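As promised in the previous annual report, we have extended the structural survey to additional targets. Below is the entry for ABC transporter domain-containing protein.
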Amino acid sequence: MLGYEGYIYTLEQKNDVKLIFRCQNRDCKGRCHTNTNSAMDIVQTTNYSIGLWFTRREKNNGLYEKGIGMEFLALIATITSICCCFIVSFIVNWKLTMVIYDKELAPTRSGGIRQGALFGVFIGWLSLITFIVCATDFISGSFLMTKKNQSTFTISDILIVASIFSQSIGLISFVGSFVQGLSEARGAAVSVFRLIDEEKDESINEAEVWEDITESRSNINGDIKFNNVNFHYPSRRDAPVLCNLSVVARAGQTTALVGFSGCGKSTCISLFLRYYEPSSGEITIDGKPITNYNVQHLRENIGVVSQEPVLFGMTIYENIRFGKLNATQDEIEEAAREANAHNFIMQLPDKYEILVGERGIQLSGGEKQRIALARALVKKPTFLLLDEATSALDNNNEKIVQEALDRACKGRTTIVIAHRLTTIRNADQIYVFDKGNVIEQGTHDTLMGNEGGKYQELVKRQQMEKIDDDQDDPIKMQKAKEEEEEAIGMCIL
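The corresponding structure token record, generated without further manual editing, is:
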């Protein structure tokens, strides 16, 4: 902040200096101060050109290198928090990592060298202008003093002009130290102003954002339809994610989206939440375009549970209340019961007032997922979006969370993105995605009866993976063996 204040102060001082030049030399008929003002204009033009160069450089260069650096530091922080130093040294190939980082940093390093060279030329240019102007002022001043009609012009006037110009050059050189920071700000401001200049979303009425939405809720039945939706991310216009996608999710029913990673399942949720707009096609709710609904009101009707639950470093009570800021204690406890979270919360030392730690580090994966589900349910949403909500849990926690999810889905329009296909056997409709389009749809039994179908292939593949995992687990193998021996004994009896 001090740098920019100094920059503004310097600009003010520089303009005052030019004004002083004109005042001090008002009796010299414009001959003496012409050189100084022209020199000041040259210096200002040079300074402005350098600033533009730095702005373009900061906007276009260094972004990838900074990303590599942040990823590298995040890797170090993550591993260091788990392991000791010698373990870190063992896991991470430091030399290879440093070589990669050094290679990616090369453009930034060469840019810094060019920057230093340019500053050196700039300072040299200022010194050259200073000496030339001072010499010119002394020569022209001496010439004016020798003239009889300029007898009032003294050596003091010459020294004043030379001194003021030297001070102004010092102020301009002081500006140079802030050029880089100012250029970075200007480069970053380009994207900010681009966002500010975007056309306003007419469906967002800022005056209605915090109004009561009870009437809005009652007017939504819950039918969702994707009509020939096409979409590509702004950063990858040549890579379509959804291609003429048509999906229907009926009110009060559970609709599952399955397929390999990258086929566009999560993108559907992002479009429904209006994080993005379709490239073409239309998304409707109860037959009305989704753009007709106020974004804030729409999201108040949606509960989302993702694969990685995000909890804040607050109490459990505050984390659940985050879903509905005016929720009462009874509403929070009701949501926790519905999410199968109330019992384990009551066993904690401070119950709902216990701090969960940064990102919920004090809780297990299943507990965090149930808190996230309670946060989604506390506002009693019309729509429930489950993005692989149980894929990161072990079997015991998956059973507990899945029981809560099945109960939460009743009476709500639910869209489930499932990795474990056993969790969607009871879904009312299943859509199988491939490369951004639907290739199969139907119930679990219908799709399993489709010999050679993609869904049947996915189910069989997961069954084989489960068998392999069980065989690799000696505890499970021993348990299965004991059960088999017990069954044989019962048959003998």
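The beta strands are 224-231, 242-249, 254-258, 280-285, 288-289, 302-305, 383-387, 413-417, 429-434, 437-442. The chain has a mean pLDDT of 70. These points will be discussed at the next consortium meeting with the crystallography subgroup.
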